[in-house]
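Email to the structure team, subject: RING-type domain-containing protein model.

Hi all, the expression group asked for a predicted structure before they design truncation constructs. Nothing fancy, just the tokens so they can compare against earlier work. One-line instruction: predict RING-type domain-containing protein, return tokens.
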Amino acid sequence: MRRTGLLFVALVFPLFHSAASLPFRGDEEARNSTGESFREDPRLELECERQNGFPNSLSCSESEWFVQGYSDFREDLADSGLLPLGQVHCCTPKDDKVDAVHVKCSARRGVENCAFLRHKPENLSSFLVGFSGSLRIDDIEYAPRGAAVCCDAIAEMRDGSRRYISPCDCLVTEEVLCPRTNNGLYRDRVMTGFLVDTNIGVPLTPAECCSMCLGEVVPPDSDCPRYDHCSSRGVCHGGFCECVDGYSGMDCSLRRNLTLEELFRNYSWDVLVCSASGTIVFLWVFFFVRRGRERSHPEEGVRRGSSRDRLLDYIELIDEDSDNDTESSAGEGEGEQSEDEEKGEVLRNVAGDESAKDASDGCVICMSSKKLVVLVPCGHSSICRKCSRRLDTCPFCRQPIIKRQKIYFAGN
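Reply from the structure team: attached below.
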């Protein structure tokens, strides 16, 4: 039984071990001029050199070149990895089978592994070409910092076909420069990214290094919908998938969070800034105008209510007018004749030019009802019945209100 268990472990362990890294695709079968078959190495031969790309010689300066590593490093005391420094080493495919290389690049959020080896090996496609920023370490040295710039690549073959260039024969190294392969033909490796990110945005080793291999044949753009090449989340353009916001990867199958810039990508920043500024100015002016009106007219909080409330106010006003008429007549001892004389005096005041003009306008307090009340004894007619009940003094001359007299217009 123990032998059976050991045999099972011996058979299964290599499978898990090989799944931890990207498997190297086997040599492709080909035939020479004599018709004899041989194994063709899918790994491309690379040409490598030092370059001085932005920023501070930390990125590849030429298109279709990919980061192989850096010339110097510094041990980080807070972490176990090495901090890459110095001039960048870059490589590009230089193979007899390849006529040209086309790339599509994008900046990732944070210092990420471009190939996503730790997440979805089936979507491996990108190679590292540099970083968006740098951090000054001393007077002459800089370290890469910020978002990793990753590129997908397509090879134009000499036979006229197009094939994807995919990472293969990958390994994880503790060095800042990728080692060459030593299985058979020597081939250079390039980086797909560093696997450690610090809290200040600089990368640390270990790093992931891969050979560049010829992958699948690029389908024509017209066949993309049929093969669902972009996972229904993008469109094909020149063999690359133009993914919608929120997705990335060679086939748009990788979900990612949107940045603030992507959320407002379809809007002009000028329009947004102008709209926000106009809104702030409008609210500011409205606040001060309203505040000034409240200071000059403290009674201006009265507003017309519902129809039922207006009807009740009308009834109460009539009752109040009746009570005021009775009290005024009894106090003065002049009876109905004195009341008629007072009404005549009020009507004469209303007939004046200023009062007649005011009566044609709305209430100066609520701005919604007609002027239907004359204040006694000052004779001003500038408010409605509802607002007059809430005042003790005239809003114009500040004289005490003794009585409120309803105005009767001819023809009403």
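The mean pLDDT is 71. DSSP finds eight helices and 17 strands in the chain. Ping us if the truncation boundaries need rechecking.
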